[in-house]
Specification:
alpha/beta
């Protein structure tokens, strides 16, 4: 196994949040969620972290975020921009929205040389998820990985959420991963599929994905082929190239096998601005339990 790389997607602006939620301080010493992700990854044995960001945010990230741990893990940056597409392709006039999570990874592939884990910058996954991933790549040489959580752990009291509803076979391999908008009303949890005309109910303990995926480098063969199809299609102002759907199609076509694991860690996320106070409260509880220090990184003079 080559050294494990953590890839953090941090280029989205977070429209429902109303700002750049990737840099919202949530720890007692001003830590952002990504600080905890990197801390847990280092503890699990990861050797490199790649941040996928907008070029305009590079200076801020280098000075205020990665400088705190650059002596503890190799740090690199990839840039996701709308112009990072094949030559000869023109996006529709007025397009401002990024092209999605699949495009984010497409923009970082030149920095990845082995097994890697891809995560969101605005999700707190907990140490157990990184431990699961590190052990998986030590023991398994071929399959892909998704680390999931029961839906009730990932729900927001402040509105609907987008999650991939995961279905597995008896051996724990994913047979379907349906990206849905999930809402709760009158004790009923409804999953409304995004890419198909399908609506169904789920239980609180239904496993869902929150973009914690373990990949092999050969995933880029599939990714690039799918992106080539997407980018040459009739793209509108908001169409996105999304990883969960790419993975789903790869599984359906028997191009990849993905093992599903469930994390025992507490998942915490920020979808809405109103989620921040609860997130800060939960971080304090984890610190009180001794799972994290009050200050993650030593101050550099």
């Amino acid at each position: 196994m080559k050294d494990l790389t953590l890839v953090i997607m941090a280029a989205g602006m977070g429209s429902r949040f109303g700002g750049l939620k990737q840099i919202e301080p949530i720890g007692p010493s001003g830590e952002i969620i990504a600080d905890y992700s990197v801390y847990d990854a280092i503890k699990a044995g990861f050797k490199k972290v790649i941040f996928i960001i907008r070029k305009e945010h590079l200076d801020y990230f280098e000075k205020n975020i990665t400088a705190k741990f650059a002596d503890k893990i190799k740090v690199e940056f990839a840039f996701q921009e709308l112009d990072m597409i094949p030559s000869g392709i023109t996006l529709p006039a007025g397009r401002e929205k990024m092209l999605g999570t699949g495009h984010a990874l497409y923009c970082a592939q030149h920095l990845i040389d082995g097994d890697f884990v891809l995560i969101n910058s605005d999700d707190f996954y907990g140490f157990d998820s990184y431990r699961i991933a590190a052990e998986f790549f030590k023991e398994n040489q071929e399959d892909y990985l998704t680390v999931n959580y029961p839906f009730e752990v990932t729900a927001s009291p402040n509105g609907t959420v987008k999650r991939g509803v995961v279905f597995t076979d008896a051996a724990g391999y994913v047979v379907d991963n349906i990206e849905c908008v999930i809402s709760e009303e009158n004790g009923k949890i409804t999953a409304d599929a995004i890419f198909m005309d399908k609506k169904f109910t789920i239980t609180e303990d239904q496993p869902v994905t929150v973009n914690f995926f373990g990949f092999r480098k050969n995933f880029f063969d599939l990714l690039n082929a799918e992106f080539n199809t997407f980018i040459h299609s009739d793209i509108g102002l908001k169409d996105e190239f999304l990883l969960p759907e790419i993975i789903r199609q790869g599984i359906k076509k028997d191009q990849i096998k993905m093992l599903a694991k469930t994390s025992n860690s507490r998942w915490l996320g920020v979808t809405y601005k109103e989620d921040v106070p609860e997130l800060k409260k939960n971080i304090k509880e984890l610190i009180k339990k001794g799972e994290y220090p009050v200050e993650l990184w030593e101050k550099h003079e």
